[in-house]
Amino acid sequence: MCAPSVVESVRRTLSRRQFVGVVATGAAVSVPVRAQQKPIRLPKGFRDVIDLTHVLSPLLPVYPGYRPIQVRPRSTIAREGYANNEVTFDEHTGTHVDAPVHFVSGAVSADRVPVDRLLAPLVVVTIAERAAKNADTLVSADDLLQWEKRYGRIPAGAFVAMHSGWDAHVRDANRFFNRDAKGTMHAPGFSEAAARLLVTERDVSGVGVDTLSLDAASAQKFVAHLTILGAGKYGVEMLTNLSRVPPAGATIIVGAPKHEGATGGPARVLALV
Predict the structure, then answer these.
(1) Tens digits of residue pLDDT in 14-49
(2) How far apart are CA 170 and CA 177, in angstroms?
(3) Could you give the CA distance from residue 248 to residue 148 in angstroms, rounded to a whole number?
(4) Nearest to 32 by CA among 10, 11, 53, 51
(5) Residue 226 — φ and ψ, nearest 5°?
(6) Is the pLDDT of residue 122 over 90?
(7) Distance (Å, rounded) from C-alpha 101 to C-alpha 252?
(8) DSSP symbols for 182-240
(9) Is the CB of residue 237 less than 8 Å from the CB of residue 265?
(10) Of 204, 186, 184, 187, which is closest to residue 195 (Cα–Cα)?
């Protein structure tokens, strides 16, 4: 956690416009080295930082077949003089990244996702009103085109997130999984057509959802996963707080995992607005 003075320094030094410009143009990010380089100071910085990450705890719902995170104290201040925990979890737990290799053999692992793809203009497509009435609703290609009519073309390199409001159910596992009498889960996701538009016609960096899966929970085939990850893009699942982010104009930072060969892993995801 950064001290307030550090956060304020970043606010003064880097503006949202600079972040978006770097991603959109593919320019390298310049990092000041000691006193040799002076940071560029712009007149306007971002106003707020919104955490899009669920707290990773044993109570957080996980995909069926996965075990909840386990946290076991290995040492304590009272006993050893320092505190240390042993943490065990499946990679795809909590707010987490899906790397292309999660579904495509030999594809890019999370530790090899280019860093300039982890900082991107954030597009938030809201389907919460529909999702409240129909848990199987999908983000459609038309939803994306309607977003563009209001806010302009989705920029190349953007991260497109679905806001369905499903994160509001995370404290109630039964409501979050939303199983029917046959045990089938129901929650929103991306349609194959929407996923295809984003990766073939808009060249996004990544796609995110506030549910357990890029696909609808009731899907029999992982068409959105295969379309997005098969195109070399990454996904982020179980986002939260997207209701606090404007549909356009924010910037996302995805703190992707970097263990070798990662098919994914828990991530700290932030929105700068």
Answers:
(1) 444 444 443 344 443 333 334 444 443 333 578 999
(2) 9
(3) 10
(4) 10
(5) -65, -35
(6) yes
(7) 22
(8) TS-B---EE-HHHHHHHHHTS--SEEEESSS-SS-TT-SS-HHHHHHHHTT-EEEESB-
(9) no
(10) 204
Q: Is residue 242 over pLDDT 60?
A: yes
Between helix 192-200 and helix 223-230 the angle, nearest 10°, is: 10
Pull the structure tokens for residue 96: 């987490």
Residue 82, amino acid:
Y
Residues 194-224: tens digit of each pLDDT: 999 999 999 999 999 999 999 999 999 999 9
Cα–Cα distance measured from residue 115 to residue 255, given in angstroms and rounded to the nearest whole number: 10
For residue 54, which of 69, 71, 76 has the smallest C-alpha distance? 69
Amino acid at 93: T
Strand order across the 96-98 sheet: 49-51, 268-272, 250-255, 119-126, 159-163, 206-209, 234-237, 96-98, 264-266
Residue with tokens 């970043």: 10
| Mean pLDDT, rounded, of the chain | 88
CA 120 – CA 256 distance, rounded (Å)? 13
pLDDT on residue 160: 98
| Residue among 8, 10, 36 at smallest CA distance from 18 | 10
pLDDT tens-digit series, residues 175-194: 999 999 999 999 999 999 99
